[in-house]
Every structure is written in structure tokens, then in C-alpha cells.
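User: Predict the structure for this protein chain, please.
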Amino acid sequence: MFEVRRYTIDRADEWNRFVAQSKNGTFLFDRRFMDYHADRFEDCSLMVYRDGGLYALLPANVKGDVLTSHGGLTYGGLVMNTRCSACGVQASFAAINDFLRAEGICRVIYKAVPWIYHQQPAEEDLFALTSVCHARLIIRDISSAIIGDRKMHFVESRKSGIRKALRRGLTIAESTDFAAFWQILHDNLTAKYGVRPVHSVAELELLHGRFPDKIRLYLVFDGETPLGGTLLFLTPQVLHTQYISATPEGKTCGAIDILFDHLINTVYSDYRYIDFGKSTSSDSADLNEQLIFQKEGFGARAVCYDTYEYDL
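Assistant: Here is the predicted structure, written as C-alpha cells:
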């Protein structure tokens, strides 16, 4: 017997405990992370119970008659633990869809959790999307990832950047100076794309305060002057680069090259996967060739982030 309930704040501890023991969840699904931008999204997260016990979670928001899982997150599919079976997940989606129809929802947009974030095989939801929901793939974004124990060599352009940085005497340190990094990031994004960072300085500081071991900032310095850096999200088996940015001077002297040589081969050399994030625009039609060239230069190769849609 499956029952679907809409998440309410009094269930936050129950929700967070399930995420922590799940086979495909990350701290992005912890309510302390999800709710930092609660004012921007009308939450419609769902909790699926089987015979009275919590069986699965669906992080989601609603806008009009469309449910998105989740509009404020990079991915947001069904969160499952090892008890979830193919048949059980099919039944879960049938129950979810019945619940959503009763709520007046007409369409679902579903952003699946990429497979590298699965601690155990967890694609029961992809099968159910086809067999139960008759979903269609609407967006396929491309990311670039490294398998930790099968690293490939850096290309010559990345090695050249490392040599420049070494000659310049650049240094690397973990930092909590989010304001300095944000300014570099802001200036870079504004000049190149005419956009601002998704997160404000205050939001980055807030999230770091809530997840100090999972959100880490590394900067590259010329003396005491920061030339670039990266903001990392650490999940159980994936090191994800949420932001990477450098000043014009940092780009010319190999700041990012020496930074990722240090992170990939020294600090986080034992991480199972290193995910550099997407190199496509929001509609997945436009590949940023310069951006993906840099990531592939570190030995990263393609992992897709897929978004599905189905009607109720």
C-alpha cells in the first residue's frame, strides 16, 4: 500500500534522515540546503510511504499546473534507498501521479540524478518514467567527469599553464573569503556572458555555515592577491566544481591549471569521481566549446544530465 504526502516543515528531520541513508541522494536534497531559496520556489516536495514506512522522496516545486523536480537544483529526481525495487518504484510513480492529478497538476518536469552520484545502482526511476509515465527526454546537458582511479594525462595546454604558474610562484590555499571569490566570479560572468552568479555572497556564506565539510573554497594567490579559485560541493563519491573562475591575469598565468592539478592529484586524489559540471546552455542546444575544452584538458569526459517531461 503506497501513500503520498506533501512535505511540510515538521517532517524536516524525517526527510533529512532518509536523504542521509539513501543510495542516490546528496546534501543538495537536505532541507537546510533546499530551503535557502524557499522564497523563490513554491515547494511541492513529496514523501512516498509504503505500509506506513517512508519509501522514497521527490524534491519538487510547483508553478501553476506544472511540477518540477526541482527548479532550484541541478538535479532533483526520486531519492531512494536500497530497499527500493523496480516494481516498488513503478508503484511509487503511479501513486505520485494519482496524487498530482488530484492536486490539479497537468505536467511534470523531471531532472534525474546523474548516475555518478549513485552510491548503489539507482535507475529504477528511469525505467518507471518510460513504463509508467511515458516520459520524453526534453533536455540533455553535457558535463565532464574524471574517474578517480582511471585518471588520464593532462593535455599539453594544461601542462603549459602549470609551468607558467610554477614560474610565477603562485600558491593555493583553502579559504573562507567568499566575497573575494564572488567578485572574481561576478566580473568574469558579467564580462563574458552578461549574467550574475546564481548564488549571492550571503547565500554562499550561509550554505557554507550549514555545510562546512561539504562546501569548500580554494583560491590561487599571487602573493596575497587572489587570481582565481573554485567552489566545491563534496558528495559521498563525487567532487563537484560548482564554480570555477579566474581574473584575466589569472587566466594568462595558469592559475586554474595549477589549482586543478593540486586538487585532482593531491588533495582529492582518492575521490571516486570529479565532476566539472555542465558545458551547455540552459536549453542544451549550445555547447560551450571553449569551456568543455578546458575540462577535457584535465582528462574529463562526458556524463549527461537528463531532463524528462510527461503529461498527467
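The radius of gyration is 20 Å.
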